[in-house]
Amino acid sequence: MPIILNFARYLPLQATPSITTVTMEFVNPVFLFGLLAVGVPIVIHLFNFRKYKRVYFTNVRFLKELKEQTKKRSQLRHLIILLLRILAIACLAFAFTQPYIPFPGKKQKADSGNAVSIYIDNSFSMEALGSKGPLLEEAKQKAREIAAAYKTSDIFQILTNDFEGKHQRFVSRDEFYRMLPEVSVSPVSRKFSEVISRQKDLFASTSKVKSAFVVSDFQQIFSNVAALSHDSTLSVYLLPLAAGQVNNLYIDTCWFDSPVQQAGFPARLHVKLSNSSDSDFEKIPVRVTVNNKQKAVASVDILAGNTSEIVMPFINYDGGICQGVVEISDYPVTYDDKFYFSYNVTSTMSILAIDGDHENTFLNALFASDSSVVYQRMQEKKLDYSSFGKYNLIILNSVGSISSGLTQELKRFLENGGGVNLIPAPNADLVSYNSFLRDLNAGMLSGPDTLNTVVSKINLNHPLFRDVFDASAGVGKLPANVELPAVFSHYRILTNSRNASESLMSLITGDDFLTAQQVGEGMLFLLASPLDIRYSNFPKQALFVPAFYNMALLSRPAPKLYYTIGRDELIRVTGERMKDDLVYTMRNNNSNFDFIPGKVEVNSVNFVQAHGQLKEAGNYSMLAGARKIMGLSFNYNRSESGMKYYSADELISMLDKKKIKYIRVLAQSQKAVGQAINELNKGKQLWKFFVLATLLFLLGEALLIRIWKT
Questions:
Q1: Of 97, 351, 692, 702, which has the highest C-beta tally within 10 A?
Q2: Are 287 and 297 in contact (CB under 8 A)?
Q3: Which pLDDT does position 12 carry in this prediction?
Q4: Tens-digit pLDDT profile for residues 49-81
Q5: 40 Cβ partners below 8 Å, 6+ apart?
Q6: What is the pLDDT of residues 598-618, one digit of tens each?
């Protein structure tokens, strides 16, 4: 028997109630028949069985007025006593019915039991300190209190960012308690919508009353409320935890000026730091260590809420695999104070020149006597396609035509990360040339154009020329006294919007003289003129040497400087083709942890994948058997480093704006979480108030009888 009342919407721990109509319901409505007992005091008062005693007076003329006054007072006293007794009996009857006000939107199924899913945010931001210690420990305590508010016969499920298999099932409350201490900080970061979606999937297997709880600090990066959809089958309760003032300085990322590092040459490492706090940082030391040797030290000042970029220059003296770390010192959030990176230092380059009618004397002079270059030549009619994979750069030196077989091999070579430099012949077969270029979706050749002209523009932002000129002229500017190549005859390079080619050198007429285009993982360089002084003086210019050296350096794709844990990216295996008879492993350089990654082959290119086995940031070695073939670095996701949170009021506002009714916010207050959950499950219990009212009415009756004498 529901009784409709008009109360403020009751929401435990919520700060912003709104007015709505709620009903009062009863656990034992049969006790409402007890209201019939109010007839007992009514009957007693209607039939007063008190016998009066007759008293004789000598003079009664003064008694009439006194008798009338006493009768009125007595009737009023009796009516008040009757009312108090009726109210006492009615309140006692109501108390036995155990009345309650159900929580709005809560679907009560008395006999079905409850299925409870509790998500505990165990991301790095939960390392921050709250009023009762680390937020993660506080979250686990809240989860325990939530479970304690339910019956032992109910079932529970714990969920963390790891989405572990052992957490994908419902367990008893005792087992839930045993699993709680195992929850620890994880590098995996999730979105709010992902958590809700996973909880919905888990509830699909049960017909019990479904309740989902989300215990988190509700970082802004986590709380993508806009991505949520409406759902009437689920009740979700958010329990935001508040961190104290957190000042976090962290390393955001790092990168090199040049994608290729050479032994004996300066390297410039850029480091970006972010200050996610309301305080300024001054003179913060930053240290770079490579292969366990300190390479650079600097200090930085960062204003509150700002970022800062510093350059850490150092020299790589040895070639091969290099692995480093950038470090700062910051408290209490420390997981983002180190940033790991790996790179290769080039000591030798392998170059193949495919000659047409004759070899090129300028290329021979440049590469043949250089100890850092392995330079070989082949005639276009005597090619060994199987050897292409061992070279960094293949130069097509004035070949008469490009056959279909050579086209396919060069295309495969480019897609796998090699570099090709096409130098046209004076009498080139443009049909075969353009067929080759068309397969690569590159610019076509047309001409020749015999107009004498000069190179007027160089793309100084491209790595090919970025560090060639003195920086004193200004960024992106040529020195005033530089002499640029003269061109006497050239083929016109025709490009359109579908080509991804980039102009590196252009003529005063507007034609391109040298272009570069990414093809797969490799790079195609296209020169507009034969490498012959009859067609241009480029081979005798100072630009010739750095241009061709950098073509070789940039041809092979550099390994990624670092990977991010949790993204499970494909990692390209460079330097060799993986063999089935070898066991390939990844090993942490600072611990004994290692694992066998999954192998993937895409277009004859080998990749490996961690498949979630990586949990710890650091420098790792890729091993083929016992031989180290690659250096890999893995860093924690920096999305948790920005210490910006949503308050309970902000969450309520966002949910109201999105008109999401099945999600409620349980804001922190003096009320215990267990008490709030009890009220969520059982409604607002009113029987105590009726018992108290019964006692008050009986006390009032007793006082009235004692004090008010007739």
A1: 351
A2: yes
A3: 44
A4: 454 556 565 555 555 555 555 666 667 777 888
A5: 89
A6: 888 776 678 889 888 888 999
| Interatomic CA distance for residues 681 and 102, integer angstroms | 8
Q: What's the CATH number where 184 sits?
A: 3.40.50.410
- Give the number of other CB atoms < 10 A from CB of residue 207: 10
Amino acid, res. 512: D
Query: What is the C-alpha to C-alpha distance for residues 652 and 666, in angstroms, rounded to an integer?
Result: 10
- Please check whether residues 542 and 412 belong to one and the same domain: yes
Strand pairing partners for 663? 236
Q: Which residues are registered as beta bridge partners of 171?
A: 156
Residue 219 DSSP code: B
**Joined tokens for residue 695:** 């006692």
pLDDT cut 90: percent of the chain above it: 28
**Which strand ranges, in their side-by-side order, compose the sheet holding 235-240?**
155-159, 114-120, 209-216, 235-240, 663-665
* Residue 453 sits in the same domain as residue 520: yes
Task: Please indicate, yes or no, whether residues 542 and 655 belong to a single structural domain of this protein.
Answer: no
Of the candidates 86, 5, 96, 105, the one whose C-alpha atom is nearest the C-alpha of residue 41 is 86
Residue linked to tokens 């020329």: 465
> Could you tell me the residue range of the domain that residue 50 belongs to?
3-102+686-707
The Cα–Cα gap between 136 and 121 comes to 7
> Counting beta carbons within 10 angstroms of the beta carbon of residue 543, is it exposed (0 to 12), middle (13 to 18) or buried (19 or more)?
buried
Residue at which a domain ends, from 491, 524, 555 = 555
Distance of alpha carbon 634 from the chain centroid: 15
**Contact between 505 and 498 (Cβ < 8 Å):** no
Domain assignment of residue 68, yes or no:
yes
Q: Which residues contact 251 (CB under 8 A, 6 or more apart)?
A: 271, 272, 273, 326, 328, 336, 337, 338, 339
**Of 674, 652, 677, which Cα lies nearest the Cα of 209?**
677
Q: Could you tell me if 166 and 374 are in contact, meaning their C-beta atoms sit under 8 angstroms apart?
A: no
Phi, psi of 338 (to 5 degrees): -125, 140
Identify the CA nearest to 158 among candidates 236, 213, 228.
213
Cis ω for the linkage preceding 332 (within 30 of 0): yes
Q: Are 257 and 558 in contact (CB under 8 A)?
A: no
**Contact indicator for 504, 447 with CB cutoff of 8 Å:** no
Residue 581 in contact with residue 593, Cβ under 8 Å?
no
Going from the C-alpha of 342 to that of each of 298, 335, 390, 518, 563, the distances in angstroms are 20, 19, 22, 23, 10
pLDDT for the residue numbered 16: 40
Which pTM does this prediction carry? 0.67
CA pair distance 509, 93, nearest whole angstrom: 102
Q: What are phi and psi of 362, to 5 degrees?
A: -70, -40
User: Residue 14: is its pLDDT beyond 50?
Assistant: no
Please say whether the beta carbons of 146 and 674 come within 8 A.
Answer: yes
- In angstroms, the CA 112 to CA 100 distance is 19
Distance, CA of 94 to CA of 115 (rounded, Å) = 31
- Identify which of 646, 640, 644, 645 has the alpha carbon closest to the alpha carbon of residue 252: 640
Count: domains in the chain: 5
Q: What digits encode the pLDDT tens for the residues 198-245?
A: 988 888 888 888 889 999 988 888 888 877 777 767 788 899 988 776
Q: How far apart are CA 500 and CA 283, in angstroms?
A: 44
Residues 187-201, mean pLDDT to the nearest whole number? 88
Place of tokens 């970022």: 307
